[in-house]
């Protein structure tokens, strides 16, 4: 699983609430027994840059953020720089709890942490601002800000410290001066990014009989769909009874329609295609407007009206989607990684961008995307060395080395290098992922993201299961979200 899996709201609220009680350390120790220390400042401070540390410690994810690639790179770093680097990896939910706990205790045990983007608004006061380190870098070729996919860097790492909900200034090439000049800071360096992409049965699309039948039925060539309308046509075409027993056994597409984070970001992708968003500029919910209703109705129609998805779609998250696609039951499937067909299927996989929607000015695409960053703990005793390690692990050359591990890299040069991959399927996936990240839409920047997501999930489920109409379901969810946001202090 590569995107947000659970928010554990009560646990996180309790953990973050500990930060007030821990404003002084009083010799308190963390779970590893190391003494907590107070913040000692930014780049160049005595504890951060006085001498080369014997060891640096990283708290990292497992497969969600490509741990295999990172562990391989760490070995090379140790050999080149003579610094031992210990990496502790945890699956998503355990990592989330561990990160929040360590920072709430102001523990100095970990120097670097893998941070998922939706955690940043809650954790931002515990993360070391990095602009001073970046401007003073001794290795500008390693930092190479202009090589990052701009949208990825801005969404993942650029926040206003006292107002993390605000969006950073738009730019096509990252400029540190423009970021800091607008009052924003970089609080990490992007190391891994996911975007909603579509895997498809290329063998079925290339079959001459299918091509002829599709052209006869729809009056155009069978090709990768660019819009949601075209996608639905293709999905309807491939939904069929393949063994002539009177029952549908092949479906056009998958969706992740369970009451789950996967369902929320599915809806968010459709909503973005319709030009909508979760909040307006005043942080008031607006997903229940005309765009939101149309997006949810279209999403639901694929399941309940056109029935182009398998019967169990309302129980699917990213795991089930991968299984169903791999088994050959669907012609197309959406997910956040490259899905593969089981060899028994004897098919061929291809990839394309999540389809958009024509709005009169062009094809609007809004696939959900999210990223992981490496952030320096504000309580590390080795801030400068930790930053140097993060800079090296996210550098162009190091990220290019992640490609054999199928890491979802964050740099333009890495995606360019991926076009030299011999395997056509892998090469195509990297091309599609890179293009998707350039047009992706990230999550809302809020401290109570999990609660908001949950409220929308309930509204979606009410509609998809027929308990409420689309407008009624979204209005109810919006009312709940507004109350949640007010309680969190966004409307003071």
TrEMBL record:
Organism lineage: Bacteria, Bacillati, Bacillota, Bacilli, Bacillales
Organism this protein belongs to: Paenibacillus darwinianus
Coiled-coil parts of chain: none
Pfam families, alphabetized: SBP_bac_1
Keyword Repressor: no
Keywords (A to Z) from UniProt: Signal, Transport
InterPro entries: Bact_solute-bd_prot1, SBP
Superkingdom classification of source: Bacteria
Region (Disordered): 27-49
Protein name as it appears in the record: ABC transporter substrate-binding protein
Feature: compositional bias, Low complexity: 33-49
Annotated family: Belongs to the bacterial solute-binding protein 1 family.
Keyword Transport: yes
Signal peptide residues on this chain, from the entry's feature table: 1-23
């Amino acid at each position: 699983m590569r995107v947000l899996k659970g928010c554990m709201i009560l646990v996180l609220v309790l953990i973050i609430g500990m930060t007030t009680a821990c404003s002084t350390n009083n010799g308190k120790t963390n779970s590893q027994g190391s003494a907590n220390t107070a913040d000692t400042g930014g780049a160049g401070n005595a504890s951060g840059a006085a001498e080369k540390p014997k060891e640096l410690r990283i708290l990292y994810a497992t497969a969600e953020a490509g741990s295999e690639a990172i562990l391989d790179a760490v070995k090379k770093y140790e050999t080149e720089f003579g610094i031992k680097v210990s990496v502790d990896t945890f699956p998503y939910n355990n990592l989330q709890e561990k990160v929040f706990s360590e920072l709430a205790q102001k523990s100095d045990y970990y120097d670097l942490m893998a941070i998922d983007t939706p955690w940043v608004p809650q954790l931002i006061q515990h993360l070391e601002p990095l602009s001073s380190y970046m401007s003073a870098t001794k290795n500008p070729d390693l930092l190479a800000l202009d090589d990052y996919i701009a949208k990825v860097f801005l969404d993942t790492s650029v926040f206003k410290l006292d107002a993390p909900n605000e969006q950073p200034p738009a730019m096509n090439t990252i400029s540190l001066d423009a970021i800091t000049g607008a009052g924003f800071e970089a609080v990490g360096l992007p190391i891994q990014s996911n975007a909603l992409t579509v895997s498809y049965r290329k063998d079925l699309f290339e079959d001459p009989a299918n091509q002829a039948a599709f052209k006869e039925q729809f009056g155009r060539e069978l090709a990768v769909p660019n819009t949601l309308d075209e996608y639905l046509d293709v999905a309807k075409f491939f939904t069929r009874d393949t063994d002539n027993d009177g029952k549908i056994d092949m479906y056009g597409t998958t969706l992740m329609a369970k009451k789950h984070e996967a369902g929320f970001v599915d809806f968010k992708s459709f909503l973005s295609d319709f030009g909508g968003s979760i909040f307006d500029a005043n942080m008031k919910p607006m997903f229940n407007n005309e765009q939101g209703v149309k997006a949810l109705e279209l999403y639901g129609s694929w399941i309940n009206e056109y029935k182009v998805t398998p019967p169990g779609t309302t129980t699917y998250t990213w795991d089930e989607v991968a299984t169903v696609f791999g088994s050959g039951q669907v012609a197309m499937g959406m997910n956040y990684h490259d899905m593969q067909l089981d060899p028994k299927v004897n098919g061929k996989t291809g990839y394309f961008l999540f389809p958009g929607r024509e709005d009169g000015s062009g094809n609007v695409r809004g696939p959900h995307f999210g990223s992981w960053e490496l952030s320096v703990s504000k309580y590390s005793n080795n801030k400068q060395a930790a930053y140097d390690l993060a800079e090296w692990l996210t550098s162009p050359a190091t990220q290019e080395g992640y490609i054999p591990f199928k890491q979802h890299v964050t740099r333009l040069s890495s995606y360019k290098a991926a076009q030299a991959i011999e395997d056509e399927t892998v090469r195509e996936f990297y091309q599609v992922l890179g293009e998707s990240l350039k047009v992706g839409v990230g999550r809302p920047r809020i401290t109570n993201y999990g609660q908001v997501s949950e409220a929308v999930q309930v509204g979606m489920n009410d509609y998809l299961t027929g308990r409420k109409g689309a407008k009624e379901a979204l209005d109810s969810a919006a009312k709940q979200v507004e109350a949640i946001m007010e309680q969190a202090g966004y409307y003071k």
